[in-house]
C-alpha cells in the first residue's frame, strides 16, 4: 500500500465507525443520550436490552455483510475480468436466495437453524454460478455477453424462487426478507454465525490477492508469470460464492452492493488487489452500515408523516434504489470514455 492508500483506508475506517454509531442511535425506542449511557455501562434494563441485544448485533451484522459483499464482488470481477460481474447479475445472489428460500419452504432450514440456511445458500450460490458458467460457454471472455447471460440466469432463478413461494405460501413472512434484503431482527445468533464465516473467506480472499492481480492483467500474462489460471479462477469463484452466501443467509439480497462497491474500490485503491480488497471490504461496510442507519431514520420520518405507530423500510430497498442511480452514472461515464 502507498501512503495515499493508507490514508484512504484510515478515512474509510473512520466512516465505518461513523456508520456504526449512526446505526446504534438511529432507532426510535432509545434516544442517543441513553445509547451513550448504555455503552458506558449504565442505563435502565429496557434501554440496555434494546441497545445490547437488538441494535448492536444488527449494526455488526450489517457492517460484516456489507464487507463480505464488497469483497465478493471485487473477487468476482477480478477473476472474470468483467466489470459487470457482480454477485447480483451472475446468478450467485439469486441462487443463494433460492437455496435459502427453498430450504425454508421445505422445512429444512429457518431462523431457528441458521447453519442450515448458510449451507442452503452456498449450494444455491454455486448452482447459480455453475449455471451461468455452462450457459456462457465459449463467450465467458466477453463481458457484455456474460452480463446478458447472467441477467438471464438471475431472472430464471428469481422465477424459481417465486414458484417456491407459491408452493409454500405459509413461509412467505419469514423469507420475504431474503428477497428484499433486511437487517431487521438480526440478533447475536446471526452475528455468531456470520463473523467466523466472513473472517475465514476474507482471509482466503487475501491469499488470492496476488493471483487475482495477475488475472486482471489477462490469462496470457498470468500464465507467463507462472500462475495456473484455471485453478486460481476456480478458487476465486469458490471464495466469491462463499462470501455472498454468508451475507445472503444473514441479511438477504442487498441489491447492487457487490456490483458497485468494486468500482469504487478500484477507483480509490487502483488495480492492485492487495490494496483494493481491504478497501472494498471497508467500502462495503460503510455502504451497508450507512444504508441501514438511513433506513432506520427514514422509517421514523415516514411513520411520523403517515401517523403510523411503526414502519420499517428494509435496507435492501434503499441499496437497490441508490445502486440503480449509481449504475446509470457509471454506465454513462463508461460510454463517454
TrEMBL record:
<feature type="transmembrane region" description="Helical">
    <location>
        <begin position="92"/>
        <end position="111"/>
    </location>
</feature>
<feature type="transmembrane region" description="Helical">
    <location>
        <begin position="275"/>
        <end position="299"/>
    </location>
</feature>
<dbReference type="InterPro" id="IPR000522">
    <property type="entry name" value="ABC_transptr_permease_BtuC"/>
</dbReference>
<keyword id="KW-1133">Transmembrane helix</keyword>
<feature type="transmembrane region" description="Helical">
    <location>
        <begin position="60"/>
        <end position="80"/>
    </location>
</feature>
<feature type="transmembrane region" description="Helical">
    <location>
        <begin position="147"/>
        <end position="168"/>
    </location>
</feature>
<protein>
    <submittedName>
        <fullName>Iron ABC transporter permease</fullName>
    </submittedName>
</protein>
<dbReference type="Pfam" id="PF01032">
    <property type="entry name" value="FecCD"/>
</dbReference>
<comment type="similarity">
    <text>Belongs to the binding-protein-dependent transport system permease family. FecCD subfamily.</text>
</comment>
<feature type="transmembrane region" description="Helical">
    <location>
        <begin position="236"/>
        <end position="269"/>
    </location>
</feature>
<dbReference type="InterPro" id="IPR037294">
    <property type="entry name" value="ABC_BtuC-like"/>
</dbReference>
<keyword id="KW-0812">Transmembrane</keyword>
<keyword id="KW-1003">Cell membrane</keyword>
<feature type="transmembrane region" description="Helical">
    <location>
        <begin position="311"/>
        <end position="331"/>
    </location>
</feature>
<keyword id="KW-0472">Membrane</keyword>
<keyword id="KW-0813">Transport</keyword>
<feature type="transmembrane region" description="Helical">
    <location>
        <begin position="117"/>
        <end position="135"/>
    </location>
</feature>
<feature type="transmembrane region" description="Helical">
    <location>
        <begin position="194"/>
        <end position="215"/>
    </location>
</feature>
Amino acid at each position: 500500500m502507498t501512503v495515499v492508500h493508507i490514508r484512504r483506508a484510515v478515512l474509510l475506517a473512520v466512516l465505518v465507525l461513523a456508520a456504526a454509531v449512526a446505526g446504534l442511535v438511529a432507532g426510535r425506542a432509545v434516544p442517543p443520550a441513553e445509547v451513550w449511557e448504555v455503552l458506558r455501562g449504565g442505563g435502565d434494563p429496557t434501554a440496555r436490552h434494546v441497545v445490547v441485544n437488538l441494535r448492536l448485533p444488527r449494526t455488526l451484522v450489517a457492517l460484516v455483510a456489507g464487507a463480505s459483499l464488497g469483497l465478493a464482488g471485487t473477487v468476482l470481477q477480478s477473476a472474470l475480468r468483467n466489470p459487470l460481474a457482480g454477485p447480483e447479475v451472475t446468478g450467485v445472489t439469486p441462487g443463494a436466495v433460492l437455496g435459502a428460500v427453498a430450504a425454508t419452504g421445505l422445512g429444512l432450514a429457518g431462523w431457528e437453524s441458521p447453519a442450515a440456511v448458510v449451507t442452503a445458500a452456498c449450494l444455491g450460490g454455486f448452482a447459480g454460478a455453475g449455471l451461468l458458467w455452462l450457459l456462457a460457454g465459449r463467450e465467458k471472455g466477453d463481458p457484455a455477453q456474460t452480463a446478458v447471460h447472467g441477467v438471464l440466469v438471475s431472472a430464471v432463478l428469481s422465477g424459481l424462487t417465486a414458484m417456491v413461494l407459491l408452493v409454500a405460501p405459509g413461509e412467505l413472512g419469514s423469507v420475504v426478507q431474503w428477497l428484499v434484503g433486511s437487517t431487521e431482527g438480526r440478533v447475536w445468533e446471526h452475528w455468531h454465525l456470520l463473523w467466523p464465516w466472513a473472517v475465514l473467506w476474507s482471509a482466503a480472499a487475501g491469499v488470492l490477492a496476488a493471483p487475482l492481480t495477475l488475472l486482471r492483467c489477462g490469462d496470457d500474462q498470468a500464465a507467463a508469470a507462472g500462475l495456473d489460471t484455471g485453478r486460481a479462477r476456480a478458487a476465486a469463484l469458490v471464495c466469491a460464492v462463499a462470501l455472498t452466501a454468508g451475507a445472503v443467509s444473514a441479511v438477504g439480497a442487498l441489491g447492487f452492493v457487490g456490483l458497485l462497491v468494486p468500482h469504487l474500490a478500484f477507483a480509490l485503491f487502483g488495480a492492485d488487489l492487495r490494496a483494493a480488497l481491504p478497501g472494498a471490504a471497508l467500502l462495503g461496510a460503510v455502504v451497508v452500515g450507512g444504508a441501514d442507519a438511513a433506513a432506520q431514520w427514514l422509517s421514523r420520518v415516514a411513520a411520523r408523516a403517515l401517523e403510523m405507530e411503526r414502519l420499517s423500510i428494509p435496507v435492501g430497498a434503499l441499496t437497490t434504489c441508490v445502486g440503480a442511480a449509481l449504475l446509470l452514472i457509471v454506465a454513462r461515464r463508461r460510454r463517454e470514455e
